[in-house]
Input
Amino acid sequence: MADMIRIIALTAVVVVVIMGLIWFAVRLTHKPRNALLGGDLGPELVSQARELKDTGQFDEAVFLIRGETGMSHRAASRLVRRL
Output
């Protein structure tokens, strides 16, 4: 009887782990292709941010991107650095 309970418990743990891995894989595959770009970044916004960066106004470019897209500071900084 005790062995049967252990087998059922172990099976339940394995099933939960497999379901978690499947959920994680699905989440990874549904990530937008341009996640770094925020997905809703228009060409006008990119050119404005590039102009600000080129004139030495890096922080202003980051704040512009953050304000228009809702990106985190870290993601917006990464984006502006890549422009």
